[in-house]
Amino acid sequence: MKKALIVLAFALAFASMVSAQTINVLFWDDAYPRTLMERIPEFEKATGIKVNIEILQPPQVFTKTSVSVSKDRTDYDLVCVDEGNIPLFASLMLPYDQWAPGKVFKKIDPNTVTPAMLDVAQWDGKLIGLPINGNLYVWMTRKDLIENPKYKADFKAKYGYDLGVPQTFQQMLDEGTYFYENGIVSGGFGPFNGGPAGVFGEAIFMWESYGTHFIEWVKGKPTLVVDKAKAVQGMEFYKKLMKISPKGAETMAHVERQAAFCADPKGVFTQFIWPAQIASYEDPDKSLVAGKIVYSAPPAGPAGRFAVRGTWAVNIPLASKNKDAAAEFVYWWASRDIATWLVEKNTVPARTDALTDPRFAKTKPWLAAIADSMKYAASRPRFNEVAQVQDIVKKYWIMGITGQMPCDDAMQKIIDETKDVLKKAGY
User: Fold this and answer.
1) pLDDT by residue (tens digit) across 319-372?
2) What is the rounded distance in angstroms from the CA atom of residue 251 to the CA atom of residue 239?
3) What is the tens place of the pLDDT at every residue in 225-272?
4) Is residue 79 within 8 Å of 90, Cβ to Cβ?
5) Contact 71/91 with Cβ under 8 angstroms?
6) What is the pTM assigned to this prediction?
7) Between the CA of residue 322 and those of 9, 77, 139, 269, what are the distances in Å?
8) CB distance 43 to 103 below 8 Å
9) What end-to-end distance do the CA atoms of the chain give, in Å?
10) What would the DSSP string read from start to end of 258-292?
């Protein structure tokens, strides 16, 4: 009996060692993590750590994290969290200063992360995980259209100024209207119907551009500070853009916007892009406009330029039994070697040294635009009840910009129902 117990103990110990060398990772689905997956076998070989990956659409990542991670248990050793959801999960994650030093790969200095992105994973005075991608609005405009001699001459004769990359909202509307009248839709404007976070980002972009914040932290609590008149102006302007957007824009998510820009020879004149998606736009096997795009910071609204951030952080749940192995994976992922390779593959990591590498200045012109956009980085409001508020904004923003109800009424609904959420939360 004693011998059997000893054998069982050794078996359990061995099983524990094996499980400690396997980590479960939850990825969001876009070009950036899918590109990274190509190199994961190298990490596994270097460390002996096996990486099991689950990759889901961003709204599903939020749902899966909500049901699969708690203080006492977790299905994942590493989860990717969109910056707007950091407050919801911060208490469940191991602060970065408590992550173990790497055994094979050196622990990453947070100062290697570009400053505009580093704030993403900060919550309650702590760095909760590590921002991992350089993600914020970058503008793209069809170079072949704005340099077409006929279009240039016709536009200047009608509007009195030169056709070019839109620097202001008014210029974007003027040029978009001109192209729309010539059979080319203005931009891939649509409410990101794939998920509320995207709609919320568009709303924040317009409200900030018209001079109003939506929710700010005041005396230690999230407070509704929106100027309704300015917010309505932003919504009304977006409604104008919708009128010169692709057919079916009211139901577009990222995939449909991308198709509208890339798949039609006439294409789309101008729209914003998340950096991780640039690879698809510049791939001649997937895009009819590869090599015909000029990148820039977003055009300025009446109150200035704003580039909404959409960065993800990687986080280790407190309940993970494989924290050291998970940290090792992040150190490999965020190393300069991998970051530089990700840039080479036309995706955008969060490391300053990789994004500013002079080797890429000519071959990857969007990097300069990303750096310019980072000067105007704007975050979405962050607080525990943000998911409820995003749903409210999505519902009424879409109704307003598509004409289902007056923008003034839609904005009032957003204000009233947001106040109710904050009141019920005890703020």
Assistant:
1) 999 999 999 999 999 999 999 999 999 899 999 999 999 999 888 989 999 999
2) 14
3) 999 999 999 999 999 998 888 877 777 777 777 778 887 766 688 888
4) no
5) yes
6) 0.84
7) 20, 6, 40, 48
8) no
9) 61
10) HHHHHS-SS-BSEEEE-GGGHHHHT-TTT-TTTT-
